[in-house]
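Sharing in case it's useful to others searching the archive later.

Someone asked me privately for the predicted structure of RidA family protein, so I'm posting the question and my answer publicly. Question first, with the sequence:
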Amino acid sequence: MKKIINTPKAPAPIGPYNQAVLVGNTLYTSGQIALNPVTMELVMDSIEVETHQVMENMKAVLEAADMTFENVIKTSIFISDMNNFSKINSVYAKYFDEATAPARETVEVANLPKFVNVEISMIAVK
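And my answer, the predicted C-alpha cells:
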C-alpha cells in the first residue's frame, strides 16, 4: 500500500503529482526544482544557490517521511548545462557523506520545468 507524502516545507506540486510516495519502507520522491516553498518563486541567484534550494526542498520531503539524506540510496540529477556539473556537485556533496553516498546518475537535458538549471529526485529506504 502506498502512502502519499506532502509537506508545506517543500514547494507544492505544480501538476498532477505528489512530493513523494512511500511504499513499504521505500520512498520515491518527485523531482525538486529551486522553488521557494513559501513564495513559490524560483531561487536562481547562481547555480550554487539554485542547487542549495533544490537540496533543502528535498531535505524537507525526506523529513516529512521521517528520513534523512542517510536513507537515500539513489539520486537522479537533471541539468540543463553539463558545464555546471562541478558547481552543482560541490553543493550536492555537502549533503552526503562520501563514504556512504547513494548511487547516482547525472544527465544533461534540453529543458527542465520552468526552464530551471537543475532538478533532483531521490529514492530512499528506511
